[in-house]
């Protein structure tokens, strides 16, 4: 019965989520660059290590500098070796293991108290030790 329902749901025609056109819209030049060449947004860390005149920055002398060179250069932010979703999953697993270990230690490894905690009469000796009930006029002067 369940497989019949799944087949019926799969056979229904669904509208497309996004419209697809045969030809993409032409890319307009960025007016803020004012004719400066638009280079691809690719970090220099993806470039091969050998074959460059400037091996430290992985570029040749006289090459056009990207308008976001501080981000795409070798001194820019490092490219993560792990995709962000996988890194988040690994972090949550590690944090969960720490929390689980802490809860396990608190529940099973901490010994019980060897003595009974003290109990004082008259609301924990509030009046005798100078609590709020011992100084009722102190509350009225704070207004």
Q: How is this structure best described in words?
A:
By secondary structure, the chain is mainly α. Helix content is 36%, strand content 0%. The termini are far apart. The model has no long low-confidence stretch (mean pLDDT 83).
Class of secondary structure makeup: mainly alpha
* Number of beta strands: 0
Instruction: Give a short account of the largest sheet.
Output: none
Tell me the helix content.
25-40%
Number of helix segments? Answer: 5
From the alpha carbons, calculate the radius of gyration and give it in angstroms: 34 Å
Task: Provide the low-confidence segments as ranges.
Answer: none
Averaged pLDDT: 83
How do the SSEs run, as a string of H and E? HHHHH
% residues in beta strands: under 5%
Shape type: elongated
What is the subunit organization of this protein? single chain
Distance between the termini: 73 Å
